[in-house]
Write a structure and sequence with these properties.
Length: 453
Amino acid sequence: MTDPRRQLPAVDALLGEPDIAGLVGTHPRSLVVRAVRETIEAARADGGTVPAEGWVAAVRARVERLAAPSLEPVINGTGVVLHTNLGRALLPAVAVAAMTRVASGYSTLEYDIGRGARGSRHAHCRGLLRELTGVEDALVVNNAAGALLLALSALARGGEAVVSRGELVEIGGSFRIPDILARSGATLVEVGTTNRTHLDDYAQAVTLSTRVLLKVHRSNFRVTGFTAEVGAPELARLAKASSAASLYDLGSGLLVDLSPWGLAGEPTVHDAVASGADLVVFSGDKLLGGPQAGILLGTRAAIAACRTDPLARAVRADKFTLAALEATLALYRDPDGARREIPVLRMLTEDIEEIRRRGEALKKAVPAPAQAELAPGTSEVGGGSFPEVQLQTWLVTLNPRSLAPGPLVERLRLGRPPVIARITGDRVTLDARTILPDQVDTAARAVAAALHG
């Protein structure tokens, strides 16, 4: 019997097909050739089976997949506001506009217009951060892990950094505080126990080699029961008495009080600054609602040490980060305006009736076979923030008779645009909190396409 794989067409033969050759007019030839080769190889791996849709359709589909960017927008129907896998904070419109402005031409990234000479990128956002928080100085780098690494390198390299065992956390992506400490050149000194650490534990650990007393906010979990921890103010006072620096890794960067909306328990940036810590470190793309960035606030001496450390260049922020962060920070001059204009804050504080109305509009737009229903549910803040808080929301639940939840979620995920849903019980659900108002019709069309295969 003849091996079916011997009957597969040659690359040149498929390239000669008029419909495939026509793809070269809209795509680079190298891409089309690659698509043809991969389509043939896929058929070969399948025992020589000709693509069910035909060679032309199979090659065209592969060309489209290869040409598509890997980083693409999605519709977040999960209800997790700060979804790390989906890019965390959505940027306010003014931040997007600011990025576009600096992307389309030259900018003052490292140029001082007033002096007509070279400037410093560290000057951007510095004034706004000082204005908003009252600190002596500030510095922006590429992310919070980089900020912590830089702070430890600048303040504790060659010496000891004292930290509670209960605060040796993993901050996501398998990055752990002890690993960052080791890379910084500081020696880790653990004190206390997993559930209880007292001020005397720190005091007894202080030696002539102590450079930093480190406080890490456990932002992504809670320890309850028989527990004790030392507050940032007490640790700052001990550090000053011991001629060491105090460093507070705050985490999420909350700049406004959200307790009126049931979001309590997360320390704010102002709380951290008021603690007297020499240096406070937090993220730009979590509760702050800006771009990925690491923000350092503190004394002139501490920030100067960070700014002049060799690692500062390795973790420096780019012009897009600085432009977006500056625009986001400027919104905080009016806290009420910030809550309206910054998507993260708006989603976290949105009136439940607004969410219900959006859910109702989505339900009505979904085709009847989906058996869509509107039901109350809960959302999450995400991003390692307010880990135990459940936000009341409205869910559009889908339960088509002919399609199980798993396949339906997959079809939604693989659609264009992708819709990321979740399974609650035996139903596929779309949380109206994280579906933007202008995405409702698009999400409904995506559901229709997924249902009809």
